[in-house]
Amino acid sequence: MAGIHGCSGGEARLATVYRRCRRWCFWGYSFENLATEDSGSTDADGLHHIDANVEYCSVIKTKLGAHRIIMGAEMDCCDSTDDGRRFYVELKTSRELDYHTEERFERERLLKFWIQSFLADVPFIVVGFRDDAGRLVRTERLRTNDITQRVKMKNYWQGGVCLAFADEVLCWLYGTVQENEDYILQFGPPYLRLELLQASSCPDVITSHMELL
Fold first, then answer.
1. In whole angstroms, what is the distance from residue 80 CA to residue 202 CA?
2. Which residues, other chains included, contact 48 with Cβ-Cβ below 8 Å and sequence gap of 6+?
3. DSSP state, 112?
4. What pTM was computed for the model?
5. Among 74, 102, 132, 167, which is 20 to 30 Å from 7 by CA?
């Protein structure tokens, strides 16, 4: 029919995935807000206002293999012990687990949770499990250092192997990149190899982000 244009099947699928990702992100921010809001506050209008920009930022000096690293990390919140010592806590969300999804959660999601928190020296991770409607079903508090033991028994992955791989990547980068040159390091689909591409200039997304700092 002339004058009528519809989305192709591929475009429609991408639009669906985009809407789903936005919804998942909103649920994640909602959990962060719920986990950190002041339950004793009398400001009813402000209790459920979601601001994804509220966060802690930490600068960390660490070492990986022979490499000394200074990195910045965004932290969701902090807690304190009975004696007043404060520590960071990472907040995550996940779909409620069942027999079919628990293995993938431990193989993939826990690896991401662990490596992010381990490198930033975050001792605890609180996971909010939700149903398909976005309702919070339960929470689980994980000790970061216990995660590797949990998956090691099932031979899913090993933390030491992951850190050794990161060390090898840094060695490769140090031996490859040249000063005053711009590069793009990407891990593209099907996610089997890292690629280092020389760029004519710094990517706009990085330049614009630096201008905001």
1. 41
2. 33, 37
3. H
4. 0.79
5. 132
